[in-house]
Amino acid sequence: MQAPGSARSVPRRVALGVGIAEIGASLTFVSVNTWLLYYLVNVAGVSPLLAGGIFVAGRVVDAVTDPLMGMFSDRMRPRWGRLVFVRWGALPLGAGFALLWWAPAQAADASAVVALGALVLSSLLYTVVQMPTLALTPDLVPDYDARTSLTSVRVAFAVVASMAAVAAPPLIVLGVSGGGTLATSTPAGWAILGVVFGAIAVLAYAALPALVREPARAPAREAPTRPPWWTVFRTPGYVSLLAVFLVVTVALMMVNSMLPFALESVLGVPGESQTLVLGLLFGSAVLSFPLWNAFTHRFGKRAALTLGALVMGGAVWALVATAPPGAPGAVLLGWTIVAGVGLASVMATPWSMLPDVVEFDALQSGARREGLLYAVFTFAQKLAGSVGVFANAVAATLFGYVPGVAQQAPHTVAGFALVLGPITFGLFALAAALVWTSPITRDSHGRARLALRALLERPDDDAVDSPERA
Predict the structure, then answer these.
(1) What is the pTM assigned to this prediction?
(2) Is a pLDDT exceeding 60 seen at residue 1?
(3) CA separation (Å) from 189 to 138, 161, 171, 273?
């Protein structure tokens, strides 16, 4: 069932603006969760356990700022719109990101404190810009399948940016450092990396207000008392989707932040060849998006996430278990491609499911709270990512990782393989099971849209307790 006026098509300018902005989001977020632990341990001289603790400590601030920014975005939207935060926040975000990759290595004994401060600042600026950007989705495309299409476009851009965030650092860092190994690279290479990625993020976010016109919306008609923020957890399907997203993100961030260590120490891939492997992983994900989009339209979002999670987890396990060490060969590259196919679904599907919750929340709460819904989701992403990175930091400590050395002891190699193999596969399998607890399907979402439209079309004297008019 589809609500009247639904359509799968997405305006080209909307798709392009949202997609380009996602380059800025993913480039900053993924590079931090993939390479910052490696940088802090091997370049800034922070111990692995302390470096992992920095990630978790930074999320204490996010626990306050993310929901507040979401609610602030919701309240300010009728007056200013959401894009004003993007216009004014993009440049500070780029500067804060560059600072994160320069300051810790310059701080000597205070490197851990400086790293924590820079991470908190960068994360706060990311929240200011990204939260309103994400909250635009339900307004830009109201239809169940159109949201899948727009999310596929957005995540396709995200995967391209993620590919650059994961694969480009070895080229940039080693190019500036004059070769050698990443473990012995110079701080200057990482500082240049921060400046380049920060500048790209600024330009990418600037494209959103240039290409997308924010939908006009009448002033809010809401219940006399706005519902408390915590009532979002009563929204049908929200908690189950949040649980899936948490597990998926922990698994993804464990893979992402462990890969720089594993490629170098477990698989013995030279630094200059790591770009090929990491680029192939995300490149195959980009190429598989049309397949997953068609699969989702045919079988639904829950089935797509289930299959993608199992493919991703199984392929990464097979990669570390069967690929011979040394230069990339057929086995390593083959399993990398398969993992990339699964990665596309794992990255895209949870985000395509989130906008569908908006109508259910509006029916229940009597208010449109896209900003708050996305704020909690984004905080969950940050928290889960930090948990994944911290888990790898603990693993590096327990398995005796030696900073600044490419070749590690056999027990360290075995420990890293354990993390990337059965542990991450178990997490992906758990997410594949949890997604079936979500009650939202194409039909139930269509009924919710019809019910919300009927509620909004009541006479004004009956609309006091209804959500704001679209």
Answers:
(1) 0.75
(2) no
(3) 40, 20, 10, 18
